[in-house]
Design goal:
Elements lengths: L15 E4 L9 H9 L5 E8 H6 L3 H12 L3 E3 L4 E3 L4 H4 L1 H13 L7 E6 L1 H13 L5 E6 L2 H5 L6 E6 L2 E8 L4 E5 L8 H6 L1 H11 L1 H9 L1 H5 L3 H21 L15 H10 L6 H18 L5 H14 L14 H14 L5 E6 L2 E5 L4 H16 L3
Parallel strand pairs: 1-9, 2-3, 2-4, 2-5, 5-6, 6-9
Antiparallel strand pairs: 7-8, 10-11
Helix pairs in contact: 5-6, 9-10, 9-12, 9-14, 13-14, 13-16, 14-15, 14-17
């Protein structure tokens, strides 16, 4: 049969910067990046900011305007900074995406200009998605403001929104052109958001890096007491492991393997079942506990190691049981397995543990063992400390 066939690859490059007080007039990092990347033609800069960040940092918008005016000579700032609600509502409401697309259209933001998102992982996911579908792709920049977004979602290549009651049902694989991790934003987080992001650190340590897990175990109390240097190390190490994973395998998830989603099959479902009252990181902590105990039941993980995992998360302040786990004889949460398989692309692939720092993929899970793990979590969490 007569046919044509072509193969090509696309090279992606994006830096992840670590700094503090990004928009201080004495900090040239942000300006240096844009002045080098803008090119000869003047382009535009559209900011979308999480309303919670503006509330915690009321001087932020004035600082951005002053900074860009003084230091980013190559770009024109759109003075109408969009302020949108953060959290999971950002990904649940189609109005948020429409607001950004409308601004891109009204202000003539072309595909070689820049859309900058400032906020937690949810709003960054949504901003990246809106940028990706406008003009078939406008360059976007992420400035994550939570632990979870700085160490995990904000440094990845995925964007998305929730649709038809399903997590990230609509989305794209489009890397940002740059990520700026500013530790100053972490100082105003409430305790829940400070804690929630550490779950992703535990996740990546458990499947990839025993030494990092041991460090987390040793420094759990300092992290729980909001030690900023400890958190800065955690974020940097997580981001490094995350980026190496992206570079070394299947960054756009063309296959069914998703090792960085250890603990996530139940977490995504629990978020939905609790109407997103659970933070993503809080749900992930429960999912990690569940799959850790399942790994122990299979004889792959010792009781002592499983206890270390659960005790680490308790020291950080996580609750590891949620009543929706065994609602309707756990039938509701078990639907998460089918939805996870669908999201993966056909074959169920779940990461479990054969040791601390060593993950292994399986393609099936036994419902009765999952229920046993849930029952064990419920018993251990109801016991007095």
């Amino acid at each position: 049969m007569d046919h044509l066939q072509q193969e090509f690859s696309v090279r992606f490059l994006y830096p992840v910067f670590f700094t503090s007080d990004l928009f201080a007039t004495t900090n040239s990092l942000f300006a240096d990046f844009f002045n080098k990347s803008a090119g000869a033609v003047r382009r535009k800069l559209l900011f979308i900011v999480d309303s919670g960040v503006v509330e915690a940092h009321p001087q932020l918008l004035d600082s951005i305007r002053t900074y860009v005016a003084q230091h980013v000579a190559a770009l024109d700032l759109i003075d109408d900074v969009l302020i949108l609600p953060g959290g999971e509502i950002a990904k649940n409401s189609p109005d948020a995406v429409e607001t950004i697309v409308d601004a891109i259209d009204r202000y003539g933001v072309d595909r070689h200009s820049f859309v900058v998102g400032i906020g937690g992982g949810s709003i960054l996911d949504m901003v990246g998605y809106a940028a990706a579908i406008s003009h078939r792709g406008i360059r976007h920049v992420r400035i994550p403001t939570t632990v979870l977004s700085q160490n995990d979602s904000g440094v990845g290549v995925k964007n998305g929104v929730n649709y038809r009651g399903k997590k990230n049902f609509l989305g794209t694989f489009v890397p940002p052109v740059a990520v700026f991790n500013d530790s100053t934003f972490l100082t105003t987080l409430d305790d829940r958001d400070w804690r929630a992001g550490t779950a992703e650190a535990i996740k990546v340590a458990l499947i990839k890096d025993r030494a990092f897990f041991d460090w987390l175990d040793t420094n759990a109390t300092a992290l729980a007491q909001r030690d900023l240097p400890a958190m800065q190390y955690l974020i940097h190490r997580c981001a490094d492991l995350h980026l190496k994973h992206i570079a070394g395998g299947d960054p756009f998830e063309m296959g069914s393997s998703r090792p960085l989603d250890f603990g996530h099959w139940s977490a995504h479902k629990l978020e939905q079942l609790t109407d997103f009252e659970l933070r993503h990181g809080e749900a992930v902590a429960i999912g990690i506990a569940l799959d850790t105990l399942y790994s122990q039941q299979l004889g792959w993980l010792s009781e002592a190691d499983a206890d270390r995992v659960l005790n680490l998360m308790r020291t950080l302040g996580f609750s590891l049981y949620q009543p929706m786990l065994d609602a309707n004889d756990s039938a509701d949460v078990l639907k998460g397995l089918a939805e996870f398989r669908e999201h993966l692309g056909g074959q169920l692939t779940i990461m479990l543990l054969t040791g601390l720092g060593t993950g292994v993929e399986v393609h099936e899970m036994d419902d009765s063992r999952i229920r046993q793990a849930i029952a064990q979590l419920k018993r251990t969490e109801s016991q007095p400390a």
